[in-house]
Amino acid sequence: MKQLRVYLCLIAVLSGPPAWACDVADKPGQAVVASARPEATDAGLEILAAGGNAFDAAVAVSAVLGLVEPESSGLGGGGFFLLRDAKSGHEVFVDARERAPFSATRDMFLDGDGEPIRRKSIDGVHAAGIPGLAAGLVHVAERYGRLPLSRSLRPAIRLAEQGWAFGSKNRAMLGYRKEVLAADAGAAKLFLIDGEVPQQGQLLRNPDYAKVLRRIAEHGHAGFYEGDTAKLLIDGVNALGGAWSKRDFDEYSVVEREPLRFRYHGYQLVTAPPPSSGGVALAGALQILDGIDMTKLDAVTFVHVLTETMRRVYRDRAEHLGDPDFHPVPVDRLMSLAHARDMRAEIDMQHATPSSSLPAASPALEREETTHFSIIDADGNLAAVTQTVNLPYGNAVVVPGTGFLLNNEMDDFSMKPGVPNAFGLIGGEANAIAPGKRPLSSMSPTFMIGEDQVAVLGTPGGSRIISMVLLGILELDDGATAQQAAAAPRIHHQYMPDVLSAEPGALTPEVIEGLRAMGHTVEVANRTWGNMHVARWNRCTGDLDAGADPRGVGSARVGKAGSEAAIFE
Prior knowledge:
Serum Albumin, Chain A, Domain 1, alpha+beta, 2 domains, globular
């Protein structure tokens, strides 16, 4: 991929399937954790050193991130856990996505004239779905871990009781949401000091968060979805005008889904199925690119082809993707080689295709504040986890006594199918609000499994998640280190709006001029996006490496760990 590093400092030219010429190792012998905060990375390595496997470490990292990165995730939100057991080869996708409460209605965010009510799906209790992350932690620990929950949750409990340092990203995101957080008594008490944003480095304690984790450690699923915690949440939400019920909590459970799998350049790609749109889109994009000799393209045409590929798979996302338990999703067709060939044949190598000329679809709004972490343990077990509360600091509501923010994932549904919402975006029927339904997501935890290397990757970034993971895969396929893949500059096109976005410096002025001459609308953003974390095992050398996105404040570390086999039933 060296050609494009020269032209764009973006990604490199596809070099074709790698040649296997080494004796591969059966297991790494060490472990690696890459996450968005050093405290979370350290927690994962602590649990691995204590004899836990990658799945125990995932529980620890997740719980710590929910404490020290509350703008991005937490017990009031949800997530996806992609897991692989090295010994058996068993792979599973644990869907701990939030669900709409049973009181939800299709038109709940519309006024009497059928128009969207601005902010109702973002701020306050109506914006929150029933949290799923706690159920995910319990399920992963009890079914796939080897340590008790009490041990895996210990780092987060310790930090909550002893205190953690408020960071630069915490402060920046809180400043953005200060007014709405100040309007909620629980959130103001937890996150503001005398009504002001804490200073960077300020020590914050959260004994309520520790209490909830202790209930989960002692009682498992019931520790959150029954008893004191459930009562606090239901009563607290309803006191603020919401309509949560005991049934919402009694009937919440994670769903184990079969991951999506496809081949690319000698790798088995294992990724997220619906209600994530990411895996389907990645399969479509990579299978389109696999049929084009990218090594023969100049820099402008290379980016043009990437853009046209993104345009088409995001159009599919908009039209077809939703919760598979409520809406039939044609996964097999969308991931087929025939469909990829048809989309590839539509690409004009000389001119941009206006999105308006493609069959109409309905792109849905999706917020960006999420987090991802990647783990490989000493046995080669893999965990890719992406979790979220949606908008920074979720819906800005903390039920007193819980110690965590609720999500605003109801905003990820289509507020009014077929009609622009308050943000000028149009929602699709497949993602319409329904009681008990999970909203569509772009979260795309992914494994690349090859003869010479194994990689775990993912990122936050809302609708940009898919394009970022796509570019990360292309980097790793060309032999980039984990850090290079995490740091590579980014471009993005999502069908609507019909704009090619680029990070500052990602495209040279000459490439931008060439793309505009082909008919592309190119906008250079005034900021970067995403926070990718990558773990990689070179099976030829036995080395592990990890990458923490320099756009964030995360860490990636290799450490020693035990070597017992994981337990998959």
